[in-house]
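Quick one: co-fold with guanosine-5'-triphosphate.
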Amino acid sequence: MPGVVDLDQARRVSKAIDDDIKREKDLRKKRQKQRRDVKVMLLGQAESGKSTLQKQFQLFHASPTLDRERPSWRPIVYFNAIKAVRTILDELDWDFTTSTNLEDETYIDPSWSLQISRIRHKLLPLITIEDSLASELSGGVTVAGGRSGVFVRAGWQSVVTPTRSWPVADMQAGINSSQGVVATMASRLLVDLQYDIAELWQHPAVKTFLRMRRLRLEESAAFFLDEIHRLAEPDYLPTTDDILHVRLQTLGVTEHSFDINFGGNHYTWILYDVGGSRGQRHAWVPYFDDASAIIFLAPISAFDQYLEEDPRTNRIHDSLQLFTATCSNKLLRNSSMVLMLNKTDILKRKLQSGVMVKKYITSYGERENRYEEVAEYFRVHFLQIHKRKGVQKQELYIHFTSMLDTRATQKIIVDINEAIIKTFLGQSMLVS
Ligand SMILES: Nc1nc2c(ncn2[C@@H]2O[C@H](COP(=O)(O)OP(=O)(O)OP(=O)(O)O)[C@@H](O)[C@H]2O)c(=O)[nH]1
Ligand SMILES: [Mg+2]
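Sure, here it is.
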């Protein structure tokens, strides 16, 4: 009938229009939010320093969260110290039995063997606790591998978040009160056995075998053993330096996000820290799709080391191969690329102590075995790979880093933030 208005239909149409507008607004908001999510992936082989860089980012953008986590790092520090003691005892056991075959002139005192076995006997309770501590820390997930055993922190990672601390918080809340029991035992044992640990660490046999490179410890072992009396204090709380020195293998991909302010705008900076050993690398690819930036870490001190998962592969060669694969990956064509040639402090120490690069990297030839030459040699190699395999218009930002040097690393983080966000903004404008 003309002139009659179907109010129900009008209401339905009006609601449909409102819904459309709301949907469009939500979509736009979502798109805008996505555009402000800067996704940064940390890539590189195992032990290249990815998790250490993640901690440095956390220190820079969210230091109160690191403060809250301090108690949770205590058992991990104990674990690192105990693991170092166990490795020394394992290696010395082996070397004393074969020491008669030593080809060089190094003096081996026949009484060392007895002295070491006396210390070993005293330290036995500490050694027997190592596996249980590893298991407690990783929520029961323990992956053994390589010479010294590799322990992952899968369970541990998921419970230590910026808002929650374990084991302290859990024990206080009475949740799973068995957690932390082994850590408490480890703490007591460290108090009781600290002088025996120090005696072992100072023993001429250990110093001799370290010098001869017949005993190889994890890079942070010396730091924790030097500090054993401080770690053994009953109210010990890890310092930032302790947390940065901790070695704990990452399993899978872990996500960390920070809110950052740049040029008056807020961005959510999402860091993806990945496990770097060969068996873990397949897990990276699903994250490549929308990665705003890649920070690739290559430890250039590792020219005389081999992969734990494949002892025939030189670590520098592995880094170069991995960097080639990263630069050639089509999914990463639009990502910013930062290369960190890391562990320069260890590289300097190694070269000063006379370790020759050409012995391990034959193409190094007769170049001088000095830091400047070696660092430049590696820089050029990585740069050439990027030129050959990378995207032409993609800039490569290269930094020499020593990730435990907080002041220097924090400066580099400022530079990286700026470079990544500028590229990110440029690309957001292109797609909007
Ligand atoms: N001296 C020195 N040690 C470093 C440096 N960067 C990292 N480390 C140490 O190297 C060890 C390994 O570092 P991580 O950050 O755990 O290595 P990652 O790349 O995360 O290793 P995965 O998780 O196994 O892939 C830790 O004990 C760090 O403290 C550095 O520049 N200099
Ligand atoms: Mg890691």
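If it helps, The chain has two domains: 39-63+251-431, 70-245.
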